[in-house]
Amino acid sequence: MFTDPPWLQPRTAYLHVPFCGHHCGYCDFAVTAGQDHLIELYLDALELELAALGQPQPVETIFVGGGTPTYLTAKQLRRLLEAIHKWLPIISPGSHEFSVESTPESLDAEKVHLLAAFGVNRVSIGVQSFHPHLLAALERRHGVEQIPQAVEMVRKQIPAISFDLIFAAPGQTLAQWEADLDAALAFDPDHVSTYGLTYEKGTPLWKDRERGAVRTVDEDNELAMYEHAMDRLAAAGFEHYEISNFAKPGKRCRHNDRYWANEAYFGVGVGAARYVQWVRELNVRDTKLYVRRVLAGETPTYQSEELDPRERAFETIATQLRRADGVRRDRFRDQTGFELDELIGDWVRDFTANGLLLDDDSSVRLTRRGKCLADGIVTSVMKSR
Ligand code: SF4
Question: Is pTM, for the whole model, over 0.90?
Answer without folding.
Answer: yes
